[in-house]
Design a protein that fits this description.
alpha+beta, four-stranded antiparallel beta sheet, 7 helices, 38% helix, 20% strand, binds adenosine-3',5'-cyclic-monophosphate
Length: 143
Amino acid sequence: MAIERTLSIVKPDAVGKRVIGKILSRFEDNDLQVVAAKLVHLSKVQAEQFYAVHSERPFYNDLVNFMISGPVMIQVIEGDNAITKNRDLMGATNPSEAAAGTIRADFASSIDENAVHGSDAAETAEQEIAFFFKPEEICEYTR
Ligand code: CMP
C-alpha cells in the first residue's frame, strides 16, 4: 500500500458538538497521522470555491451556508491508503446509511449536517489540500 495524504474537514455541526478530539482520535487510532491542521471560519467565497463542483446541485446553497455557519477544523491526514481509509472511517454521506461505528453514524444528524468531509480520490485530495494549505504548512513525519 502507498502512503497517501487526504483532506479532512470537521464540519460546523461537529465542532459545535465539541467532538473534534473524538473525530481526530478515530484517525490516530487507525494509523492516520495529522500532518497539518487549522481551525477556521470559512468565508462565503471560500466555501463556494471549495464546493464549486456541486454548484449546479440543488443542495449547493444550503451546503455553502452550513459550511460558513461556524468554525471548521481542517486537517491533512497521512498514512497507508489514507484516502479510502478516511472514507471508510467517515461512513456513508447520509448518516442514516452509515455503518455502525463510523464517524457519521456516531456524530452526524443528517445528510446536510454530516460532521465530516473527506477527499474522494487522489486527484481531489491533491487539489483540496492545496486549496487550504501551503506546502510549508504540512509537516514531514518520520515513521
Ligand atoms: P461532503 O462530503 O462534504 O460533500 C458535499 C456535501 O454536500 C456532502 O458531504 C453533504 O453534506 C452535502 N449534501 C447534501 N445533500 C446531498 C446529496 N443529495 N448528495 C450528496 N451530498 C449532499
